[in-house]
Amino acid sequence: MGRPKKYRIVEYLLKPTNFKPTDRKANGYVEITIDELEAIRLADLEDMYQENAARVMGVSRQTFGRIVKSAHAKIADAIVNTKEIKIGKDEKCRNVKLIKCINCGKIWRVPISYSMHKCPECHAKNVEVLRISKSEGEK
Ligand SMILES: [Zn+2]
Fold first, then answer.
1. Closest CA to 95 of 12, 36, 32
2. Separation of 38 CA from ligand 1 center, angstroms?
3. Which of 13, 17, 57, 68 has the lowest CB atom count within 10 Å?
C-alpha cells in the first residue's frame, strides 16, 4: 500500500501543457508534475532558498529537494535526448489563496478550503486574505 499523496501548495494555476522539439520528431517523452514545475519555478526562477520554497509549498526541505532534483533530471533528459515534455498530465489545477500577516507582513499561500490561519513567521492570528486564485476554466 502506498502512502496517500500529500497536498502541496502551488502558487499559480499552472495549466497542463506540452513542449515538443520543433525541428525533429520527439524521441519519447518525460512527464513533469505540477509540483515539480512549481518547485523549479520557486528554486530556479525566484531563486528562493530551499527552506523558504519548501514552506511555500507546504513540504519539508528534504521533500522539496527531492522534487527539484527529479524535475531537473527529467528536463535534462528531455533536452539532451530530444524528448517531449508533458506537464501536469492528468492533473487538475489547484486553487490557493494568499494570506498576509498584519503583524509582521509575511505573505504565504494556503489551499482555498483552509480556514485556520496562523502566521508561520510570528505565529500571530491577525491575518488578511489578499488574493484568491480563480478556478480552472475561468479567465
Ligand atoms: Zn506574522
1. 12
2. 24
3. 17
